[in-house]
Amino acid sequence: MSTAATLVxxxxxxxxxxxxxxxxxxxxxxxxxxxxxxxxxxxxxxxPANTNEVAEVVKRCVATNTPIVPQGGNTSMVGxxxxxxxxxxxxxxxxxxxxxxxxxxDNDTAIVEAxxxxxxxxxxxxxxxxxxPLSLAAEGSCTIGGNLSTNAGGTNVxxxxxxxxxxxxxxxxxxNGEIWHGLSGxxxxxxxYDLKHWFIGAEGTLGIITAAVLKLFPIPQKxxxxxxxxESPAHALKLLNRMKYAFADRLVGLELMARVCVxxxxxxxPNTREPFTEHHAWQVLIELNDSRADAPLGDWLExxxxxxxxxxxxxxxxxxxxxxxxxxxxxxxEEISEAQRLEGKNVKxxxxxxxxxxxxxxxxxxxxxxxxxxxxxxxxxxHLGDGNLHYNxxxxxxxxxxxxxxxxxxxxxxxxxxxxxxxxHGIGQLKRIELTHHKSPVAIAMMRQxxxxxxxxxxxxxxxxx
Length: 466
Ligand code: FAD
Ligand code: MLT
Ligand code: ZN
What we know:
Shape: globular
Largest sheet: 7 strands, antiparallel
Distance between the termini: 30 Å
Bound molecules: flavin-adenine dinucleotide, D-malate, zinc ion
Strand order of the largest sheet: 13-10-12-11-15-16-14
Strand content: 15-25%
Structural class: alpha+beta
Number of strands: 16
Helix content: 25-40%
């Protein structure tokens, strides 16, 4: 059996010498998060090729009391995928487990390994004549294992749900190195506790997801996308309600952006341009789709926007006339995070609020922040249709110095408005302490009991979530 001294050599025997990275140059990309907020150290980065190798590695780590940090594309927004500074952990990267095992078009399912990059699954589903609808700006590098472990949301949640809604079964290596073969393709199965939901959104703290059965959908034959100028979040909410009731499940996504977000993108991202002749305080991006190629979606959208102008909900709009224009409008929304990263440090919030209360939240929280920090820049955008705001705050040249005071104001308002401190990014290390102030003691106790039952030695992604 392995000892701490022989662990890395023993792991090399399981996965092969080339699948164990130990030099600083090789491990560096795995040790710092996307936002450059956290850097850890690790004994090694281990890249197993299959589920049996993952299980064997976990058994060696249990024998030597070695923590394991599972990692997919390392695009976590909350420092969930990087180790701490002790150097005791291994990073277990799933990025070699990148095979789509099968696609069953009659069952509308795909069985995919955890390390498959989201965009590659979207492409493979498309080649099979199906849609895998999860979509987020990090889709070129995030992985299915990471999407499952964070219960990722993204821009198509209104129509297709969060990642949790797209899963039928999982294969998991448990914290003691056993393999749970839960790759069921069933849409109905009430045989006791639904174990897959323990691991979805657990951020690697309860086990390692190695594969999943995911739902596929018909490919939309028609899309219509518009960027709409509105005066305020209250107008945006009215527009959302209009679109929801006019289009029901043809409404795929509805995103809100404050002016400052568009300015950031125009400033930092090459080949982007302002679509309007005037500058508008708020913009709403709307996407509709339909499975019929002859659906006059563009005409319907235009008519509905006409009614929105008449009622004063909207003040200006651009409807994309081609796929290239659709992409250009989406680029203004999807590049906000990258533009903000290039701009400098900001205090990031990924909150959800009951949709009806979003305008009042923004008004009150903006006022409270500006009262304390008159120079604050409020970069507010997000998935309005899901009640999810990325309510990011920046103070010029102060970096994160006032993060605690800013968080206090924002999260007090989140509580007052009945919201959540994490809508879609998870808890990671960024919000672990904060979580204990916002979830009930009963809920925290149940989470800890579950953690203790599955991972009694606290080896799975310690220091994250609970
Ligand atoms: P990682 O960052 O590697 O890991 C995330 C967490 O999951 C960590 O806790 C890690 O330990 C755990 N984990 C990873 N793989 C496994 C596994 N196989 N088994 C067990 N645990 C595992 N998120 C959204 O929800 N919506 C968005 O719209 C969105 N947009 C983004 C845009 C940008 C530009 C960026 C950089 C990020 C965005 N994110 C978004 C956040 C991030 O992309 C998602 O959380 C994504 O799901 C993480 O996937 P990943 O493969 O990079 O996971
Ligand atoms: C987004 O919706 O663009 C993301 O969740 C990323 C972010 O919040 O920065
Ligand atoms: Zn988001």
